[in-house]
Amino acid sequence: MGSAHSVPAEMRELADRTGFTSEQIEHLHRRFKQLSRDQLTIRKENFDSIPDLEFNPIRGKIVHAFFDKRNLRQESDGLADEINFEDFLTIMSYFRPIEMNMDEEQLDRFRKEKLKFLFHMYDSDHDGKITLQEYRNVVEELLSGNPHLEKESARSIADGAMMEAASICVGQMGPDQVYEGITFEDFLKMWQGIDIETKMHVRFLNMEPIAHCY
Fold this sequence. Notes:
Number of helices: 10
Low-confidence stretches: 204-214
């Protein structure tokens, strides 16, 4: 994380930017080195060594999210080929648990950052909307581990959820009106009242063979 004399200043900058404590940053740096095999960057194939991701139905979307430049807060769009430790910290900061001393404004910003990250996982073509097909893809992946649920059933669940989203966000639609997709503003409405702050987290302080990510 830089030369010895610059580490304290660099640590403070990383702490200010991500909200992690210096102890958490040091811990995550050890985790990063473990994942990267002591290299300066991580590539997608490095995530193959995480046992808990192997059987996660949306494993691909989770790994994809680490390299999505929208989540890395970069101006350009698309996917990064590799990420460095600062990028890794940026992604992990979306999963930070809620802090008891946060005021209402901080909580609102914290919540929106988490939901923006989640929104990007659905919006696979990066056009700013979650289409019916994108929603179907996620639901089908989530339910793929259920051997008793057929693909058509999963699709019906997704279609029903999209209709509900349209009713929440648009209201009564005319017979010829088409709901083009869920915008981020719509997404915020859909998640209103749901406790995303505590549900969306990662056990990054666990130093077992490889980090748990779910």
